[in-house]
Design brief:
70% of the residues lie in helices and 0% in strands. It is mainly alpha-helical. The protein is rod-shaped, with a radius of gyration of 32 Å.
């Protein structure tokens, strides 16, 4: 009486595992490509936001200088126009954000008479 051990190689199981592994690897590659696309889109959005912020900072600096100097009615209107354009640009950069304010045309106040 002896013990006989038979080892059978189950090629069906190996093929199934290989197929599943290949599917997983393909899915990982696809997900990696999608992550790369997302990162690229985020980088572009960040560049646009940074540019819009830079424009707003410049406009604020111009406004501060104008306020310090007094500025004419035309100068105040020019700064208000720049602010409106910068805000529109910023809103265009982030179109998915719901707006909580309504857009109105702002005019500079008249210069007081001396």
């Amino acid at each position: 009486m002896g013990i006989h051990i038979h080892i059978h190689k189950h090629s069906h199981d190996e093929n199934s595992l290989t197929l599943k592994l290949n599917q997983i690897m393909a899915t990982i590659k696809e997900l990696s490509a999608k992550v790369d696309e997302l990162q690229s889109a985020l980088d572009t959005e960040q560049e646009q936001i940074a540019a819009a912020i830079k424009t707003l900072q410049s406009t604020v600096a111009d406004l501060q200088e104008m306020v310090a100097d007094g500025g004419s009615s035309e100068e105040r209107q020019a700064v208000l126009d720049k602010i409106s354009a910068a805000v529109s640009d910023l809103q265009g950069t982030i179109p998915d954000e719901p707006s909580t304010t309504t857009s109105t045309t702002t005019e500079a106040p008249e210069e007081p008479e001396a």
